[in-house]
Design goal:
This protein folds into two domains: 155 residues, no CATH class; 288 residues, P-loop containing nucleotide triphosphate hydrolases (Rossmann fold). It has 18 helices and ten strands. The strands form two sheets. It has a six-stranded mixed sheet, sandwiched between helices. The protein has a four-stranded antiparallel sheet with strand order 2-1-4-5, covered by helices on one side. Strand 9 and strand 10 form a beta hairpin. Helix 2 packs parallel to helix 7 and helix 4 packs antiparallel against helix 5.
Amino acid sequence: MTTIPQTILRSLVYILLEADMDSVYSMVSAVLLMVGLYGIFRKCGLKPWHALIPCVQELKMGEAAGRADEGRVAAVMRAVSTVLIILDAVLELTPFYSEDIDILIGVASVLASLVSMVYLVRVYLGLIEVFGLRRRWVILWFLVDWFPALLWGWLKKYQPLWSAAEIKSDAANFFSNSRAAVLDQGLTVNLEERTATEFFKKKYLLRDIHMYIQPGHMVLLLGGSGAGKTTFLNAVNGYEPAKAEVVMNGRNMYKNYKDMQYDIGFVPQLDLMRGSDSVYRTLMDAAALRLPMEFSKEQRQARVEEVMDIFGLTPVKSNLVVKLSGGQRKRLSIAMEFISNPTLFILDEPDSGLDGVMARELFEQLRKIADQGKIIIVITHTPDRVIDLFDDVIVLAKDAKRTGRLAYYGPISEARTFFGKDRMEEIVKSINRTEEGGEGRADEFILKYAEVQHGRSA
């Protein structure tokens, strides 16, 4: 007596023997894709059996990738294409069938398939982000989707950084709807969003960041890798404008950028200095670029002498840049930006490569500059050795949709209470994901601070 499994197996063998090679490859590829997606859905916290249902595959892939809208479009377009193919086959058996109808249905089916593929590419890119891999994987997904699906679904080395449940979390969808007050003095940032376009799709890099920084305050900027610290600074200094209002001392930064650009000093992590120039020549060149045209040569020289004295560079004014120590190069890099006497001073890891003593001296100098009524914002990966010199801290974190959000802004002492941590490095660890060696509490603190802001504005 033949059992049901034997009957199914014989039927499959018969189909494979009767089908041409293209059909065989298509069927095998579809089965392998189902198997791969089964594993991926399981890892992402979705029901794995959804991988076995055509069209639902795309829908659930979108949820796993944090691209639910794209997955929905891809699923609908695949369903439309399938229905059109079936309709064409049915009409072929009726008197209503004609060559024109065949062409019309064929064109519509191809268009639906193309739209589905475009949106699937967006879903693939989302999955790549979720698994923390390089974007070039999209080529493999596009050409042979079953192969990466099998690898990611069943090899232990491929694990998602976010689950589908986290992507739908409240923190990712809760916004404070608050705005910082715009005052005549100090820096006000009301950043609604900073986006980028990826495959014709808007991607959020930063959202819902509002703050007011008082003159004379030295502010620490904290955040894990990819939280958007540099993107935030570029939005504040006007280098990469966002959908935001940035006002410094009562003037809108974006509307008056040409007039205000030298009122902002930005010191990047890597300095851009010619090693063959002397310290004095380097600062004179900076003065020529950053000081107003009406400044005479004597006035520029006087400003250079003043800045060299402030940063302790007078004894090495004749030395070549290439001969300077690490600490001296850092001070020279800062001095170049300080030539124009900026109101806002932004520094990206100014202590990189410096030992504790040199770093301390550098930050003490920055503290003195802040005490002159300047606003200083600093990124540093070793904040605790100089934390006593800061007034406030900005903490950025990635929400479940991988968007940079404000997890806290305020005094250092209150930050310790807010996060329940004594050290700044422990705060960063608390918001980093578990896969990054952290506690994975970013959404918790983003939501907590958004509610605080919402309460203040109510």
